[in-house]
C-alpha cells in the first residue's frame, strides 16, 4: 500500500514535470477538454438559471392559484383560437364563491375577480409612464397573490364595494413617478382620472423576464370599471385549499364553469383553466434544446479532445521508449508504468477541466455583471460533473497508450534510439 | 553457504529474423561466484549485450537454465523479473541513461521508489550513494550540468543504491575518454574490494585488465574463460 502511494506520488510529480516540460503540447492537448468543460458547464448553468428564474417566477404566480381566462397559457401566440369565445364576467367570482360555500367538500378556497388592461398610462404632475398593467379586483386579491407591501395598505372591503378611487402601485411605478418622495397619499392620474395611492408593493422582479409585477397598478374593481368601462380582460383567480391536487381543483373548476356557462355535455369548454404548470410544459422544449445542443457540443469536443490526448500520449510513449526501458530496468513494474502514463493524461484532462471551469465561472460572472436580470446559476453539482467528466476523458484517452507503454519489452526499449 | 551467484546451463538465446534464426547466445555454460569481478569481451555482434540482458533479467533465455541466487528465472513473469532487477541488480549503461529532467539525487533514488521506500530514507541513501562515488557536492545538479565522467558516476551511484547482489555494466567507459575511464574503473575496483559482484562488458583490453576474470565470446559461444593470476 505504501509502495502504491509512493509510486502514485512520484507519478504525479513526473506527470507535472512532463506537462511543464511540454507546455504548448499539453495546452493543445487540453484544449478539447477545456472546450468540452466550458460548454458542459455553460449549458448546465443556463438550464439551472432558467429553472431558477422559472421557479421564482412561478412562485409569483402562486402554486395554489388557478386562473380562469378566455385564452390558454399553454398555447401562447395562438390567441386567435380563443377569439370567438364569449368573454368572462367578473360576476363569476361571486357565483363561484357561493358554490364553494355550499359545498363543504370543495377543494377551492376563494375566487377573486380581476379585470385588466395592459396598456394603461399613469401620470403624476409632469411625469408619465406608459404601458402600465392596470387591473381592478376585490379586497380579497391578496389572498390569491404573492407580494408584500413596502408602504401603505391594501384597500378594504367597503372601498372595494363602493369603488373608491384608490390604488396600489408596483415598485417601478413608485420610483418612476416619485423618485424622491413617498407615493402614499398622492393623487396620480390613470386614464385622466384621479386615484389616490394607498399602497406600494415591494419589488418583485420580472416574470420569466417578460412581464413585470413591479409595473402594475391595482384598483378596486368598481373603480376600474368607472375608468375603463366593461371592456377589460377578465381573469378569475381561484385559490385552492391546502393539499388539494391541482388536477382535482381544475376538474372542480371546470365543472363549476360549465354549469355557469350552461354548457351541455359534449360541447367543448369555452374558457381556459390556467396554472403555472402550463408554463413548465412550454419551457421544457427550450430546456431540452439547450441540453441537446450542449451535450452535442460537449460530446464532440470531448471526443476530439480524447482522440488528441490519446494521440499525443502515444507519441509521448514512443518518444520516451528508452525512458520506459530504463524505468523497467530499474524495477518499475507494468502497473507502475501504466499508472505513470495514466496519471499523466489524467492530469492533463483535470487541468483542462479546471481551466474550463475557471473560464466558465468567469463567463458566468461576466454575464451576471452585464445582464443582472439574466437567469444564470452555477452549481456545485456542475463542478463535480465537470471534474468527473474530465477524469473519465483522461482515463479513456490515456488507457490504450498507457497499456502499450506498460507492455514494452525492457531490453528492446533500452536499445531504442 | 553456496557461493554461487549465477549459474547458466546450456543457455541459448535465439532471435527469429524472418525465416532465419540468429543464434545470439549458443549453448552457454557459465557460473559466477559472489564477489567476482568479471569482464566479458568479444567482437561486435558476439552476443555480449544479449548475455548481459539475460544476466540482468531484462530478457529470458530461449532455452537452457539461468539461476540467480539459486532461483530460476525461466518461469517468471514481467513483474517478478522487475522485482528481481530492482532488488538484485544494479545497471550501468554505456549511454548513462539518466533522466534529463531529474537532478542527481532524484535519478539516484529512482530504484528505491520502485522498491517502495519512503522519501526520507530514499534521500539519505541516495545522498550516501552519491558520496560514495565522490559526488556529494553535486546532488542537485541536473545531468546536463555534469561532465560525462560525473554522469557515469551518478549512474554508478544509482546502481549501488539498492545494495544489489550484482552490478552489471555494459561498456561503462565506452563514451568516456581515457583518463575519465580510469576514474570510473577505479570506482568499480573499489566497489569490488568492498565486496560487490561486478560484471562488465568491454572491448577494450586495458579496461578488462582492471578485472580478475576474462570471458571472451565469439558468435554467441564462449571462446575463453581465464582468471587473472592471483597477486601477492
Ligand atoms: N532484438 C534483437 N533482434 C534480433 N537480433 C538481435 C537482437 N538483439 C541482438 N540481436 C543479434 O544478436 C547478435 C548479438 O547481438 P549483441 O547486441 O548481443 O552483440 P554485442 O556483442 O553486444 O555487440 P556490440 O559490441 O556491437 O554491442 C547480433 O547478431 C545481433 O544482430
Ligand atoms: Mg552490445
Mean pLDDT of chain B: 92
Number of helical segments of chain B? 7
Which structural class should the secondary elements of chain A be placed in? alpha+beta
| Structure class of chain B | alpha/beta
Binned, the helix content of chain A reads: 55-70%
Task: Characterize the structure shown.
By secondary structure, chain A is of the alpha+beta class. Chain A has two domains: 2-57 and 281-415, no CATH class; 64-268, no CATH class. Helices cover 55% and strands 18% of the residues of chain A. The two termini of chain A are 35 Å apart. Chain B is of the alpha/beta class and 232 residues long. Chain B has a single domain (4-227), classed as Rossmann fold, CATH 3.40.50.300. Chain B is built from seven helices and ten strands. Chain B has helices at residues 48-55, 78-88, 104-115, 119-132, 148-160, 178-193, 205-208, and strands at residues 4-17, 20-33, 37-41, 63-68, 71-72, 89-92, 166-170, 198-201, 213-218, 221-227. The chains are: A alpha+beta (417), B alpha/beta (232). The interface between A and B is medium-sized, with 24 and 28 residues. The complex binds adenosine-5'-triphosphate (ATP) and magnesium ion. Magnesium ion is lined by residues 48-49 of chain B.
Topology:
The complex is a heterodimer of chains A (417) and B (232).
Chain A: H1 2-21, H2 23-61, E1 65-69, H3 91-102, E2 108-124, E3 127-137, E4 149-152, H4 157-162, E5 166-169, H5 171-177, E6 187-190, E7 193-201, E8 206-207, E9 211-212, E10 216-220, H6 221-228, E11 233-240, H7 246-261, E12 272-274, H8 277-319, H9 321-329, H10 334-370, H11 380-406, H12 410-415
Parallel strand pairs in A: 3-10, 5-7
Antiparallel strand pairs in A: 1-11, 1-12, 2-3, 2-6, 2-11, 4-7, 5-10, 6-7, 8-9
Chain B: E1 4-17, E2 20-33, E3 37-41, H1 48-55, E4 63-68, E5 71-72, H2 78-88, E6 89-92, H3 104-115, H4 119-132, H5 148-160, E7 166-170, H6 178-193, E8 198-201, H7 205-208, E9 213-218, E10 221-227
Parallel strand pairs in B: 3-8, 3-9, 6-7, 7-8
Antiparallel strand pairs in B: 1-2, 1-4, 4-5, 9-10
Helix pairs in contact in B: 3-4, 3-5, 4-5, 5-6
Bound molecules: adenosine-5'-triphosphate and magnesium ion (MG).
